[in-house]
Amino acid sequence: MKRKENSTNAINEQFLFQVCELNSAIAMISGRWKSQIVYSIAEGNNRFHLLKRELVNISEQVLGRQLKELEMHAIIVKREIPGSVPAGIEYLLTNKGRDLVPILQHLCDWGKVYAGGKGIAVPESDMHEESVAV
């Protein structure tokens, strides 16, 4: 969904992208399925039907859209498989995509410790000032 360029949301988003590259990076990989798609391609599931089989709950429409967005951000490239009949397409990680895999792994590890793999909830003990490390 495209925002109006002069909307408050668009202006705030642009400001955040200018003040911190982290916001831009998160925007590139945000999306419910993108990290799983990147992992799956890294593991060799580099064709649409293989990705669909690996990510059983994703719809074909969403998978196609997420692949296009990852390609737009140069995290993956789409390549025709030479000599395949009918013409086959495979998805490959770019250097940017390969560099992203260990970062996603670290975020996954962080999530296992602090988010428990579920919806993010801040434990009450973390809300107290004395538990904050300086």
TrEMBL record:
Origin superkingdom: Bacteria
Statement: the UniProt record of this protein carries the keyword Transcription regulation: yes
Keyword Ribonucleoprotein included in the entry's annotation: no
GO molecular function: DNA binding
Domain HTH hxlR-type: 20-119
Keywords per UniProt: DNA-binding, Transcription, Transcription regulation
Pfam families: HxlR (PF01638)
InterPro entries assigned: HTH_HxlR (IPR002577), WH-like_DNA-bd_sf (IPR036388), WH_DNA-bd_sf (IPR036390)
Annotated PANTHER family: TRANSCRIPTIONAL REGULATOR, TRANSCRIPTIONAL REGULATOR, MARR FAMILY
Name of the protein in its database record: Transcriptional regulator
Species name: Pararcticibacter amylolyticus
